[in-house]
Amino acid sequence: MRDLVSCFSENSINISNPSCSSYSSNTCITPNTLSPSIQTSISSIYKLVLSTLKQILITVTWCKNHSNQGLTIAFNNQDPSILPPFRLNTNSRFFRKKKGSKLIDFEDSKITVLWDLSNAKYETAPEPVEGYYVVVVIDSEIGLILGDSETITKRMKENVSMAKITLLSRREHCAGCSGNTMYSTKAQFCDGGSFHEVMIKCSVEKEGSFNSKSSSSSSSSSSPVLCVNIDKKNVIRVKRLQWNFRGNQTIFVDGLLVDLLWDVHDWFFNSVSGGAVFMFRTRSGLDSRLWLEEKNSQKDKDKIEFSFFIYACKSS
Fold it and tell me: Which InterPro entries does its entry note (predicted)?
């Protein structure tokens, strides 16, 4: 009997092998009228296991809009009225302290947040790409390190231990026009894995149809088409999204099974707050279930899977 991975490989798309070109002929044509979507926020959820075996969830959110740009750090999804999250507004008109530290009392622990954003460099995303660091220390144990932190952590590591850190999920929010739009980002689907370029395109394309009065004459109609590319390889191409607004596809990334699911229903049918959701979820090769079905099954508590979400909303 064949293993599950070999069975899935017959109907899935391999991204990690650059020589694989099973979908190379199914490339998605990009119209010149596509408008890039603007990234508005990025949220990452980390699971920390301290040396005392205490577990803490940390949610780090970078955001950017017309009035401000900043960072928010929350712990264990606590009620903001009980434990307000740590907030920084890095907009130059309001934010004056781009380097410093803050002590936070969290349950029976002492948390220290150290940051330096004075030389942070940004591209188009709200998250800086270099020239910064953010360090979270819990009870004299390094819990989280973000950015260029070699200088400060080299001094701290001499007497401070490191917690076990696992990235559970990443959520990216973007805004785009209601017609032709595209969104590009990079994603890492496992610890130590390579970063992959993810591009989502939604455009209106013309498709030919025969006229009922004459088999020789033809007419064309416009239909929305969804394309998702990973490392410039087309993994899905969905036509007529008004009817195919939800679906899923299994792909291989870095040797992992990844379920790609999309839901663009509200993008087309909710004119007020319409949006689209794209979900990537890793699962082990021994698990034959789609991750949406796992809610009805008993999961291994020690098995950690990664989720990557992209939320797109219509810009005004």
Answer: DUF868_pln
What b/e string do you get for 273-293 counting C-beta neighbours within 10 Å, with b at 16 or more?
A: ebbbbbbbbbbeeebeeebee
**Dihedral sign, CA of 155, 158, 160, 164?**
positive
- Residue 39 to residue 129: CA distance in whole angstroms: 14
**What does residue 294 show for φ and ψ, rounded to 5 degrees?**
-70, -20
Out of 104-108, 152-156, 209-213, 232-236, least confident range: 209-213
Question: 110 to each of 54, 94, 137, 162, 163, how far by Cα in Å?
Answer: 13, 28, 8, 16, 15
Backbone angles phi, psi at 150, to 5 degrees: -60, -40
CA dihedral 94, 137, 111, 59 (to 10 degrees): 70
Give the burial string for 61-71 (b: 16+ CB within 10 Å, else e): bbbbeeeebbb
List the chain domain ranges: 4-37+170-202+228-314, 51-162
pLDDT tens-digit map of 33-88 = 667 888 899 999 999 999 888 999 999 999 987 777 889 999 987 766 667 788 88
Look up residue 117 and give its two tokens.
């954003």
CB 91 within 8 A of CB 85: no
Q: Is residue 236 exposed (0-12), middle (13-18) or buried (19+ Cβ within 10 Å)?
A: buried
How far is the C-alpha of 42 from the C-alpha of 44, rounded, in Å?
7
Contacts 24+ apart (CB under 8 A), 4-11: 4/285, 4/286, 4/287, 4/288, 5/257, 5/285, 8/250, 8/252, 8/257, 8/285, 9/252, 11/250
- Rounded to two decimals, what is the model's pTM? 0.79
